[in-house]
Amino acid sequence: AQSVTQLGSHVSVSEGALVLLRCNYSSSVPPYLFWYVQYPNQGLQLLLKYTSAATLVKGINGFEAEFKKSETSFHLTKPSAHMSDAAEYFCAVSALSGGGADGLTFGKGTHLIIQP
Amino acid sequence: KAGVTQTPRYLIKTRGQQVTLSCSPISGHRSVSWYQQTPGQGLQFLFEYFSETQRNKGNFPGRFSGRQFSNSRSEMNVSTLELGDSALYLCASREVSTDTQYFGPGTRLTVL
To answer: By the 8 A CB rule, do A72 and A26 touch?
Structure first.
């Protein structure tokens, strides 16, 4: 069974500051990890995914995440926050690469607030 | 390619009624998954269909069912609606070659 914990239901940063959203996972098998973003009244958009290749994964919109097996973490970062980054961010884990038959297990989400 | 489409986008029903939601995956995708999103429980996996076969189901009562057609379009049905079924229902189609799930905009179901 898999589980995901996202630390901090709300994170507030200033525009131009570093964004750090935390995600810790639990998985009985080597995991596949994902970060999704959700804007108001929209579905989920994939930011990036880890599938056992490089531990540092680069995604869209300047985001990246590092897989750390020893810490069971997959934190999301962006060097400089932009107002358009304000949204809900979800970390997800799957025992299968695409989250197929077993589905994706999501964290509770982190609401990112960007202060002008 | 067009993205994942879901219809209707908004739906209001009363307790005891049933509802059917529709999802059209991205052209060429044969895998469709359904998720329920609520403020209290977050995002939860409902079930996944691949080539018209349900491969797995999440921890939901039998009132929640689905099916997939030969053109990969999928429908989700909820019978005997309860107030707690009010949620955003998201459909995702999976691109097998890249193992990536693409989500639709969702159907917002309100049960009164």
So the answer is: yes
Nearest-Cα residue of chain A relative to residue B34: A103
Which one of A44, A46, A94 would you mutate to disrupt binding with B, by most B Cβ within 10 Å of its Cβ?
A44
Q: What's the count of helices (H) and strands (E) in chain B, helices before strands?
A: 0, 11
pLDDT confidence band for A56 (50 / 70 / 90): very high
Quote the Cα angle for B111-B81-B33, to 5°: 95
What would the pLDDT profile of A1-26 be if each residue is shown by its tens digit?
A: 789 999 999 999 999 999 999 999 98
- Model pLDDT, residue A97: 54
B108 by DSSP, 3-state: which?
strand
Nearest to B45 among A103, A108, A109 (CB): A103
Test A100 with B100 for CB contact under 8 angstroms. no
